Amino acid sequence: MRKFVPLALGVATCLGALAAAAPQNPGTAPAAVPTYTKDVAPILFKNCTGCHRPGEIGPMSLLTYDDVRPRAKDIRDKIDDGVMPPWHAESAPGTFLNERGLTQEEKSTIFRWVANGAPKGDPKDMPPTPQYPNGWSIGTPDVVFEMPEDYHVPADDVVQYEYFYIPTNFTEPKWVQAIEVRPGNRNVVHHVLVRYKAKPDAKRAPLLKLNPDISSLPKTTAGLRPKRADDLPTRLLATYAPGTNPQVFRPGTALRLEPGGVLELQMHYTAAGQDETDRTRVGMIFSKDPSPREVLASQFFNATLKLPAGAAEVKVDADVEFAQDATVWGLFPHTHVRGKKWEYVLQLPDGSKTTILSVPRYNFNWQTYYMFKEPLQVPKGSKILSTAWYDNSAGNRSNPDPTSDVMWGDQTWEEMQYTGILVSPASQKAPAVTSGGPK
Questions:
Q1: In the chain, where does the domain assigned CATH 2.60.120.230 lie?
Q2: How many CA atoms lie within 13 A of 61 on its CB side?
Q3: Tens-place pLDDT, residues 190-215
């Protein structure tokens, strides 16, 4: 049987073909095909190779054409799906200092490059390969503290939190401009909390009040009250978790460490199916400013959470109240594998509310300290209200056991509702370091 194409459709098809064959704008040359050396390498060097290089968290290196070419289509798909670069907050561009993302022009360049066969291009167009510090993202540290010996992580056992204590031998106060936690073995280090234990030589008025208050919780509550080497006051300094960047403070601000302190490393290890060892290090760069503004690393959380078995939408709240005027530099949301989204609202003393951070696509494997480009100026009596949502159902493919109720706990099959916060008293200028400044 012969098929007849309607005249209108046949004409339209011919005209469409002619239009596709003809230049869209006579006299204008077609857009050049992007090449790796000229167009793509600069984008990857700027946005990707900080993580995707040997020894870093990225699972593959993207430093050379030979690295990139076999993965060209996968790179395109990850960018198109919004998986890479990893950024899970929803906000207007420019809200956060550390935003990760590509412009539409950069995305288009990579998409056209892949569509045209991912050509290498002229070697003369290749930009210089970025030079990264050897082993440290913050640059060469002024001081490095290391676990005193390798720690053995068994192949398939549950590893309880471990605590390691490293004397600093500081003889005078130190101001820390940047701090980086480098796991010796990322395959087994789930997270690290670095705390500082020292006799305080600078008085600090109370700044934050946690709700719910955990003072009445049993001392055996997991993860909240570990045994200490002594009774010295302890402050949180730094956090490492999958995807977390090193903490670099703005010029003129720093963490203050009293003399004679000890670093406490709270280590959470996860068995990886084979015997492993780890020897984590902490590097610090000291401020060159003799009298910087002090930044305090603190936290607020809800350790009373309970996620019913099979529940796909569980909301857990916690808030923190400001006992004095303060500046908030950044927030760090943290759950385990059942967490799926976060929202933070600033409530002023008059009751008005503003959303300051929304993370609708929380990803346990890429945990981020969201640093405000314009720090929040928060008056006394204000609150930050945090809400985390969880999926404890069988529909969550990361859920280790949807048939069990889940409570607060250290291990990844348990859960947390935890927020790190970087904050400073609004009017307090920390005392200057004597003896000629930091050394």
A1: 143-425
A2: 10
A3: 889 898 998 876 667 788 988 776 54
